[in-house]
Every structure is written in structure tokens, then in C-alpha cells.
Write a structure and sequence with these properties.
By secondary structure, this protein is of the alpha/beta class. The chain folds into two domains: 130 residues, NAD(P)-binding Rossmann-like Domain (Rossmann fold, 3-Layer(aba) Sandwich); 208 residues, Dihydrodipicolinate Reductase, domain 2 (2-Layer Sandwich). The strands form three sheets. The protein has a nine-stranded mixed beta sheet. A hairpin with a 2-residue loop joins strand 9 and strand 10. Helix 1 packs across helix 9, helix 5 packs antiparallel against helix 10 and helix 8 crosses helix 10. The longest helix has 18 residues. The radius of gyration is 21 Å and the shape is globular. The protein binds nicotinamide-adenine-dinucleotide. This is Gfo/Idh/MocA family oxidoreductase. InterPro entries: Gfo/Idh/MocA-like_OxRdtase_N, Gfo/Idh/MocA_oxidrdct_glycsds, GFO_IDH_MocA-like_dom, NAD(P)-bd_dom_sf. Keywords: NAD, Oxidoreductase.
Length: 386
């Protein structure tokens, strides 16, 4: 590996900032990656970000992301700020020649996502890489599911079901936050968690959504804010059905009011020769049915995805010593660093993030139009990745 240490700046130090810090801190302990330095953690409150920097292993803290991304000793900018800031920070960082990892969804609007993709494409020609944080691609069981599908073990995939269910808004007294305002979050359950499910459907099957039909619902229309009751301007729940390339159909449900469901991403894939099921709440497990076996022997087998043969797993513990949600971020940073080191484009790229954004937009358009089947705008997508 190269001698030069890659200086990292991370923007945002709350939920995702903490998860990414943990991954930056431990990635080199488990994977053979280029050396990095956790240089600077950026937030708005000087004291709070200084405290977080000390706790999470960052050498320094700062409150002005603009001056940080100009520094010569910063080579990578990791954006864990809310969606409304992604475009401005990512474009400025790419233009300053920094590799960028940005949390999902790529942006709040198609226009922002397109501008980010254009900046990423221009940066790539200068050897500057970029990636979106759809971290569930790095769940070993889902990476393995993708391999099984690509190897043809399911035959032709016809039907995928995905549900991403949470319940943190079941309580009508849960307070307002940036996640519940359209101008800061873009959308609600749709952009926040259906985006993960849509990315998974396309990633697992290698197919792209062509048409969407959607329903969005805000069950609790006002919530308590710092200055009294405020209007909630995003959806609590989203439903969508999709037609994809490969004559495939899929459905997605995303909810923040699914009482009793905490963070349940459920995925079922049905093909002519087999089927797979997965639930994030048991993320070390993949259920696989091989329909080429005699019918009397068929049945879902539970594969404990914890063998050194499984994706990412040879770096961790002896078999059966299960891993958790936080490991997906370590895997994500491992893959990002290897791509930066080899000069290859990491995936999911901003192009892929933009395509998910276009699917989200089609769902929203359909929902605003009595669920009319709506064509996903693929304008120039096919050539964008080139
Ligand atoms: N991959 C996942 O599973 C996952 C899970 C949750 C959130 N996310 C995504 O991560 C991103 C952040 O979400 P979160 O849950 O961490 O939010 P959060 O509210 O917990 O944290 C946001 C952080 O951004 C910082 N911030 C806001 N404005 C800033 C500014 N001007 N300068 C510097 N820092 C600023 C805040 O101080 C805070 O530290 C969003 O895009 C969200 O969709 C991804």
C-alpha cells in the first residue's frame, strides 16, 4: 500500500457521523486498506463537535466545512449531514479534488442529484472518486444473495417484495425534526428508507425500474416543534409497485408508523428456479429455497452467512461469531478506500444514486396523480455511467 496517508474529514457527528466514525476507526484493523488519518470532524456547535471528535477518534474538530475541504491534508470528505446539504458540500469537495462519500439518499431533488452527478463525472476524469452510502449493499447476506442471483441459482427473477418498516413516528407526540420538513429532508419514509429498498431491488437483480405507481400518506399532519405545533410536510408511509427491465415486478412498502417494527428491512426474491428471503433484524441469515430439487426435498434453508467463504467474512471472527449492523459501514469504507487506491469508480456511484432519485420522483409524481403508472425518467442514464 502507498506511504501517503489519506486525510479524512467527516461532516456531521450525530447518528451517521457516529456510525461512520466507528468504521473509519476500525477499518484498518480488519481489512488491508490504504492508510488513513481521521483528521477532522465538522459540526456546527464548537464545544459539542470537539467533544465528539475526542470520543470518536478524530485529531481535530471544526465548524466551517468550507475551509476544511480546501485543506491540502484532506483527501477524502465523508458527508453525514442532512440531505439538503449534500449537493452543496459534495460539489464543492469534488471541485476541490477530494474523494467524496455521501450518505443516502444522494440529494433531496433531481436537480441537485443531476448537478452532483455531473460534478462526479468531471471529477472522475481527474481521478477523483465518489460514492453514495447505500450501506445495505455491504450486508454479507445481501452481497451473497446478489451472487446467487447473478449465478442463476434463482433462474429468472420475476417478483421481488421489499418492506422497510419502522415505528418511531407511531406516537403522534413525537417531535418535529429536519426529517419531517420537505425543505430539509426532500421526502419522508420514501427518500429515507424506501430509497434503501429500491436500491436493493435494483442491486440484487441487476434490473432497473422502468415504471412506478405510488401512494404516499401522512397520518400525523402536525407535530410539536420548538415554537408550537408545526405542519409535517413529508410522508409517514409510502407504497409503490414497480415494473422493471427483465419483465420483473416489485413492490416496496416503507413506514415510520408500523407499530412494533423497529428497523425491519425485509426482502423476498422469487425466481423460476428458487427464492430468497432476508430480514435485517437477522442480518447474518439468508433463507434460500432451491426449486430445482425434487419437490419433496424442497424447503427454505437458513444459511448462516458467517463462513470465511462469505463476502467480507474472512476479515472478521471465526465462523458463527455473528456480526452486526455497524459492520456494514466498515465494509462500505473498505470498498471505498480500495476503489480510491486502485483508481477505479466505486459503486454505488452518483449515477446510481441519481437513478434511485428518479425512481423516488416517479413514485411521488404517481402518488400526486391518483397512483397513475408513471414512467421513470431514464434520460441519459444509460450513458451516464460510461
Ligand atoms: N445509511 C443509513 O442507514 C442511514 C441511516 C440514517 C441516516 N442516514 C442518512 O445520513 C444523513 C444524516 O442523517 P443522520 O441521521 O445522521 O442525521 P442527524 O440529524 O443525526 O445528524 C446530522 C448531522 O449533520 C450536522 N450538520 C447539520 N448542518 C450542518 C452544517 N451546516 N455544518 C456541519 N454539520 C452540520 C448536525 O450537526 C448533525 O451532526 C442523511 O442523509 C440520512 O438520510 C443514513
Amino acid at each position: 500500500m502507498k506511504d501517503k496517508r489519506l486525510g479524512v474529514a467527516l461532516i456531521g457527528y450525530a447518528f451517521m457521523g457516529k456510525a461512520h466514525s466507528n468504521a473509519w476507526r476500525n477499518v484498518a484493523s480488519f481489512f488491508d486498506v490504504p492508510a488513513i488519518e481521521q483528521k477532522v470532524l465538522v459540526g456546527r456547535d464548537a464545544d459539542a463537535v470537539a467533544e465528539a471528535a475526542a470520543k470518536y477518534g478524530w485529531a481535530e474538530s471544526a465548524t466551517d466545512w468550507r475551509s476544511v475541504i480546501e485543506r491540502d491534508d484532506i483527501h477524502i470528505v465523508d458527508i453525514c449531514a442532512p440531505g439538503w446539504m449534500h449537493a452543496e458540500i459534495a460539489i464543492a469537495a469534488l471541485q476541490a479534488g477530494k474523494h467524496v462519500l455521501v450518505e443516502k439518499p444522494l440529494a433531496n431533488t433531481i436537480a441537485e442529484a443531476e448537478a452532483m452527478t455531473a460534478a462526479a463525472r468531471a471529477a472522475r476524469t481527474r481521478g477523483v472518486q465518489s460514492m453514495v452510502g447505500f450501506n445495505y449493499r455491504r450486508v454479507p447476506a445481501l452481497a451473497m444473495a446478489k451472487d446467487l442471483i447473478a449465478e442463476g441459482r434463482l433462474g429468472t427473477v420475476r417478483h421481488v417484495r421489499a418492506a422497510y418498516l419502522q415505528d418511531w413516528l407511531s406516537d403522534a407526540e413525537s417531535p418535529m425534526s429536519w426529517r419531517l420538513r420537505k425543505e430539509t429532508a426532500g421526502s419522508g419514509a420514501l427518500g429515507d428508507i424506501a430509497s434503501h429498498a429500491i436500491d436493493q431491488i435494483q442491486y440484487l437483480t441487476g434490473q432497473s425500474v422502468l415504471e412506478a405507481s405510488g401512494v404516499l400518506k401522512t397520518f400525523v399532519e402536525q407535530r410539536p416543534g420548538p415554537k408550537g405545533m408545526e405542519d409535517v410536510t413529508v410522508d409517514d408511509t409510502a407504497w409503490a409497485t414497480f415494473w422493471l427491465t427483465g419483465d420483473m415486478g416489485a413492490s416496496v412498502e416503507a413506514s415510520r408508523v408500523a407499530t412494533g417494527q423497529k428497523n425491519s428491512l425485509q426482502i423476498e426474491v422469487y425466481g423460476t428456479d428458487g427464492a430468497l428471503t432476508f430480514n435485517l433484524e437477522n442480518l447474518n441469515e439468508l433463507n434460500f429455497l432451491d426449486a430445482t430439487l425434487p419437490v419433496r426435498e424442497q424447503g427454505f434453508r437458513r444459511i448462516l452467512v458467517n463462513e470465511p467463504e462469505h463476502p467480507y467474512m474472512d476479515a472478521w471472527w471465526p465462523q458463527g461469531h455473528v456480526i452486526g449492523w455497524e459492520h456494514t459501514f466498515t465494509h462500505q469504507i473498505r470498498d471505498f478506500l480500495l476503489a480510491v487506491d486502485s483508481g477505479s469508480a466505486p459503486s454505488p456511484s452518483f449515477e446510481e444514486g441519481l437513478q434511485v432519485q428518479r425512481v423516488l420522483s416517479a413514485v411521488e409524481e404517481s402518488a400526486n396523480n391518483k397512483s397513475t403508472l408513471t414512467v421513470v425518467d431514464h434520460k441519459s442514464f444509460a450513458t451516464e455511467g460510461a
